[in-house]
Amino acid sequence: MANLIKNGDIVANDWTTITLDAEVSPGDVKLPYGNVLLPLAVWQARKWDLIQRQWHSLDGGGKLGVWLSPDEDPAVLAEDLQDLDVIAVRFPAAGDGRGYSIASLLRIRYGYKRELRAIGTVERDYLHFLHRVGFNAFEIENPEAALASLGDFSEAYQPAVDQPLPLFRRSGLALAA
Amino acid sequence: MYAYTETDRRIVAERVIQYRDQTRRHLASELSADQFRPLRLQNGLYVEKHNPMLRIAIPYGQLSAPQLRLLAHVARSYDRGVGHFTTRHNFQLNWVRLGQVPDILAELAQVDMHAIQSSGSCIRVVTTDPLAGVSPVEVADPRPWAEIFRQWSTLHPEFAALPRKFKVAFSGGPDDAASVRTHDLGFEMVRDAAGDVGFRVWVGGGLGRTPILAQVVREFLPWTDLLSYAEAILRVYNLAGRRDNLYKSRIKILVQSLGIKAFAQRAEAEWQHLKDGPLTLIAAEVARIADQFAAPDYETLTDLDARFEFMRRFDREFAAWVKTNTHAHRQPGYVAVTLSLKAPGQAPGDATAEQLDAVAELAERYGFGELRTAQTQNLILPDVRKRDLYNLWQETRKEQLATASVGLLTDIVACPGGDLCSLANARSLPLAAAIQQRFGDRGELVDIGALRLNISGCVNACGHHHIGAIGILGVDKNGEERFQITLGGATGPGAAIGDVIGPSFPAAEVPETVARIVDHYRACRRPKEGFIDTVRRIGTKSFAAAAYAQEISIIEDEREVANG
Ligand code: SF4
What ipTM does this complex have? Predict the structure, then answer.
């Protein structure tokens, strides 16, 4: 289960990712005990029940998270950020870069502060980019080796989540201007 | 020319280290071929028909003499001593070894060169007018803006996996020498009423399988907003561009399906969140970069040079070369010179290591040690004194770089085609040679005048056949290598996509077909009317009739036999 890198450390992944199959409607899907990462449709159908379940159970119940497909607009979660401990974005393939924009929007436009996790096809050679756009957790094979790739670059030109100012605003010139 | 800072250097060096490890893991089977593919592509490495090909970036076409010498060195040490200049400011080595590419990149890094984003589904090498900074007609020098854009687009984390490749060009002015109209995103330098510089922004152009000309998405973008607006466009494309079909994934298809108005609204809405944010450019940074493109130490000269004028009258061959291969310069007494890579028998755009070394030396002796690569697959010395032209001409002749054909029919632009490229339907290079041979008569060539002829080996259109006044496209018909001809293509403000004139021709018939088309032009033109204008005036149908004349007579012959 230790296939999770979080904040630069390898940790146990104690979350269950729920997927929907065609026969079950989002309202009916059975949820296990513990921390659950839900498809957006399940979250939207059962938001209030799920929040109440958390309030009413003695140990706080499991934590709640939602995962987004690359075709889902993160704006729909803008009002729910306080209720979620994890937002994950699924990468169907390494070459599908929509998740990078989704992450940027969640962090910068909607101000999401908690765990943002990359799931699906996550490969070490993209960790630098994923980290820059705001992911701080990665479900990845062979995380020990992958950790090294987080440090592939020590500097970058563009502003992003890890560094809100572009290089040109961090040089002496910019300060003098 | 822009000088790398420590940080610029560090980023390139770290990419070399990263890529070396990626190559190592691939060779150790830790990275599958599919996993390695996008990684090597984003570093310019294709696996071609016979061999891997490495595409080295020459951002906005600007090269120094030491850089050119290094290209000569890598061509000699890691390849067969020849390299190829493409239509988009790249230098390709066709016979490298996969395992040696990290070493090549490490050598390139020594002179601040790399292969970052020269291929793959990302923002590609930014291009501009090869006469930027010396052109007498430009509104402003586009190179500082291209450099600012290069930095922003280098390893941009959000746009590392776009739906498809994304090509960006900057044109210095209304002559659109960088062809913003055929790019995914183009910036044309303009000034507003107050005289402040900014950009007219074009989007959704591109050649390839579905050629489309770009449209204006914003009439005036203040310079401060260059990067924030680009980020907005790219974000809209990254999220909304199609990913289900490779042939429909360029931004031109998105712009077409939404319509330019709706696309512009989406870009504008996205931009409202980014505008005036940290990407807003600051004057100090623009000045830091623009200073490095300041005019070199020109001599104060008169525009009329007695020696030059004398030699021009005295030596007709020299005069012919001056006419085609030199270009007006903003500084009196200076011209820009095209060193032709179209010598008969040489593949268009190819240069040997010896030629590259020679050009580096010429750039130092006859200029300020700088040169440019042109979209026409030639090299340009940007700052040559008229006084020195005769000597320069004689030296370039020794190196086979003085073919006096720039802008004429034999200044053919051709992709590498079937000799090297695994996607090709047909071989472009032997055809280019055959056409050059057919038009070997200088008098005829000059009489035909300005004419762009482009050859692509397949629909991917790397030879830009759509925008050639005569475009030739390799097609495959039941395994036979044939060529389709288009007429009327053009770049610049009058940009147009050529019309297909009819069924394809076997390779052997193409040179004579081109000759019939050209003869038709010579028969129909009005005084001083150029080829493209005659095509526009009388229409491609009229030319098609001429082109197929011979075929029609063959068909008639057959009928006579059948009837006889
Ligand atoms: S146009 Fe086709 S044949 Fe020519 S280089 Fe491009 S992909 Fe290869």
Answer: 0.95
